[in-house]
Model the fold of this input.
Amino acid sequence: MTLAIATASWKPLVSLGFTAALLSGQLSHALPPMESNHWAIYLGSFIALGFIVWTAPRRIRFIASGANLVFVALMTVLMLSWRYGNGVGWFMPMSDGDRPMFMNFGWQLFALLLLIAGACAAVGLLLALYQERGSLFRARELAQSNLKETEIALIVEQERTRIARDLHDVLAHSLAVIAAQADGTRYLSKDQPKAVLNALDTIARSARRALVDAQRVIEGVRDDGMVTPQPRLSDIPALIDGMQRGSLKIRPSESGKRVELSTGQEMAVFRIVQECLTNALKHGGRGTDVRLHFDWSGPGLTLHVASAVAQGGKEDTADSARRRVGRGLPGMRERAHLAGGWLTAGPDGEHFRVTVFIPYGTREATAADDTAGAEAGGTFEEISRAGAQPVSAAAGPPRPGSSAREAADRG
Done:
């Protein structure tokens, strides 16, 4: 009975087994029966029942209650029958056999033991309800606290997103105007010195690159206001390794000679690859075959991503394609657009294909950008001397013939 009490909360079924072993041993005379004043030892089974009702699951509670009902009946037989015991202290043994003993005292002893078992079970049930009530109160308080924190975080995030969007729109508009005005002035002023044209070209290129980098800076702001390190093309192999550990079968390949991209374009390529692999794992599941190819041979980087779709017929493929059109594809298109390129996506037979193009110009143009910037940056005095006359003419009254020449140039 000591073992039954000790294991009640830890192993309820084992606890019931100890009590059943004790009673079975006494019924089979393998264990000596109780003395008349030792009957209270049986109450250990009811104490164990209380612990079981307190800590065990619902199903085990019913099993323990039914088992103890059988135990009460066996205890009654063991304490009243002349074959096993010698009375229970206040019930003197009768010499007329078991039948008169059970008829006179059987139901009384059975009801008494059942009442004690019920009381112990009730105490255990009250403790369980009290503990459950406390857990519910704590869970409710935690949920309310989390709800308030989530509401505050949501409000802050919405405001931060609105500010970032407004800032991006203002910068995008201003930088686009700067690039357009610089290009327009360069095309309309072909008779200007080369230093002026180089400066205008540098202004236009810098404005376009700043437009892409502004998106990178705005997206890279953490909650604490610090700028997080942005991913580059060199981080893609680590991303592929991590997704392969997530049970994706990725086969990367590359053709052509790499060309250096701007920081904003590298971040856009990384995010697009990350979103493609995430969608492949999300919609295809573990073990999805993904082919990833970088083509550097054209006027820009062409990225091909093909992921296998679930085999289930055309209807399933169409459903999978519809499920894929969520926030991910519009976000990838926006990133490609901000990087100066484009993106297409859709199902193609047994695969879902994503094609991205990020322009970087020809290698000669890329090298010319650096030389043009150096030339423009080192001839500011030449620009001011050579452009003094056109600027002053534009600022002052128009000279004869200037309006006609300007109209001819624009026409």
